[in-house]
Specification:
Length: 196
């Protein structure tokens, strides 16, 4: 079974979106506002006939905020951008989506600010986890339009397991030197997790 329409927003190299290219029932749109990125992708897709099925792939020069979607059965990936940019894109796309769609995000910075925004939107959280590669941590949130469990301001399941604990230690190191109210509240929450 396919994954409906996959949108890889801020696709850069396009690896995420293209990983769905063998699913025949899935159409893929790679989106990026950088003309250089789009040119490189065109060359990559047109020169690679061995494992990329072309008819279901399209490439679009656009900011995520400016997209027009059909409302059903979209899987929207927004990875590798700051929380502010991701928040703007989710806010712009959400009114166009129904509950058959899902939004998968992975912010690289400003995760706390993004969580605050997401919690205020008509969104529910289906899954959250953190993955690690080369010493970097990548939080991933899977969201659905509509009602249901809200995004937690600091995360819940994301702290589970070995990688969750390593991420908690890394976040503590990073945030405990900050003195602003939001950072202090976050650090208190992270410290309290240890005693659970
Ligand atoms: C660091 S790359 C992330 C690539 C890939 N998504 C990943 O996670 O490996 C960020 C990409 O986002 C694009 N970008 C920046 N602002 C954007 C926006 N508002 N809408 C869509 N893409 C954007 C950039 O041009 C760049 O190619």
């Amino acid at each position: 079974m396919g994954s409906g329409h996959v949108w890889d927003i801020g696709c850069d190299h396009g690896l995420l979106g293209l990983s769905f290219s063998q699913e025949s029932a899935t159409s893929i749109t790679l989106v990026d506002p950088s003309p250089a990125v789009i040119e490189k992708l065109k060359i990559k897709i047109n020169s690679n006939t061995s494992h990329i099925t072309k008819p279901n792939i399209s490439i679009m020069l656009s900011k995520g905020q400016d997209l027009k979607l059909s409302n059903r059965n979209n899987t929207i990936f927004i990875a590798g951008m700051g929380g502010e940019e991701i928040g703007q894109i989710v806010t712009a796309l959400l009114p166009q989506l129904d509950q058959t769609s899902r939004i998968v995000i992975s912010p690289h910075r400003k995760g706390l600010e993004l969580r605050k925004l997401l919690a205020s939107l008509e969104l529910s959280i289906a899954h959250e986890e953190v993955v690690t590669e080369d010493g970097q941590f990548y939080p991933i949130l899977v969201l659905h339009p509509g009602s249901g469990p809200k995004v937690h301001p600091y995360g819940q399941k994301i702290w589970e397991g070995e990688t969750g604990e390593a991420y908690r230690q890394q976040q503590l190191l990073h945030f405990q030197v900050h003195r602003d109210e939001a950072s202090c509240a976050y650090v208190s929450y992270l410290r309290a997790l240890k005693s659970l």
